[in-house]
Amino acid sequence: MRLKTRHHARAIIPTASMADIAFLLIVFFMVTISFEKDRTQVTLPRTELRLEVPKIVAYVSVTKDGWIRVTDGEEMSTLIPKIDDVLTFAAGVVSTYPGRPIVLKGDRDVPYEKIDKIIDALKQAKVETIYLLSDQVRVDEEGGGG
Amino acid sequence: MKLKKTRLSEEIPTSSMADIAFLLIIYFMITTSFAATRGLDFSLPKDDDSPPIVEKEDSVLIEIQPSGQLIVDSNPMEPEQILEYLHPKLKNNPKKPVIIKTMPSAPYGYMVEVFDLLRRAKDELKLKEDINISIPTQREIDSFWF
Q1: DSSP string covering A87-135, please?
Q2: pLDDT in tens, A1-28
């Protein structure tokens, strides 16, 4: 009897669909990506109500130590030496990009005195809307405000 | 002489496509950041030349102490008591201004928590409109208040 010749399984891992998966992931990242113009590390205050901030905004960030970084939303944020410079910056944003909101990204432990001066500068520069950036309140923190 | 015929493969080489795709994925994963770009919006007065003149008696004044203690119209209060206190006043006059005055050395986070509480009041108290929240700056208080 003649035996049938053995069929050797090919030692190939099928990778044809891998590219499809990878491209799907790329599309996902391309759709969801937003290049942050400000990467200042702060501990944000926590709130229950959190509204979506528009994609193109200017930033004023204040760290716990009082360092202030600003960006008009076009370039990466830069450090400003004096708090009085916030007025100059905000006036520049208002004249160049009228109606652009300014996001105030303040550390929750920074003394309010600093924030007060910044809000005052934004008011004087006739900024229309500001956003106070916040984190989601945690369940274990709920009701423990003030 | 017998020429050896090399047969060209009919397949498109796609094995490197996955490598390229994964490199792109790594790039996007590093550069992307699911930013916590959410917060509370606050509309600033349109015209700074005519600051809102609010009579002390016509408004509710919430003072935030450095310790986080809240004093509402000269009475110490817990955050959860504020809405209860505001409810009858806002029923009578929905436009009654609620002023948040934060002490300069108080952490900024306390002010945001109170602001969040007042922003949520519309839903919690089933009011027809948002509370008229005012956050005067120290300069405005010194210049125009009392």
Answers
A1: HHHHHHHHHHSTT--EEEEE-TTSBHHHHHHHHHHHHHTT--EEEEE-E
A2: 666 666 677 778 777 777 788 888 888 8
Report the alpha-carbon distance of residue A5 to residue A11 in Å, rounded.
18
- Among A28, A52, A104, A112, which would you mutate to test the B interface (most chain B Cβ atoms within 10 Å of its Cβ)? A112
Q: How far is A71 from chain B (nearest CA, A)?
A: 15
Are B37 and A123 a contacting pair at CB < 8 A?
no
Smallest Cβ distance to A110: which of B79, B80, B107? B107
In order of their start, the domains of chain B are 56-144 (3.30.420.270)
What is the tens place of the pLDDT at every residue in B8-24? 777 777 777 778 888 88
Question: Which structural domains are found in chain A, ordered by start?
Answer: 46-141 (3.30.420.270)
Distance (Å, whole) CA B92 – CA B94: 6
Q: Return phi, psi of residue A129, to 5°.
A: -130, 135
CB pairs A-B closer than 8 Å: 182
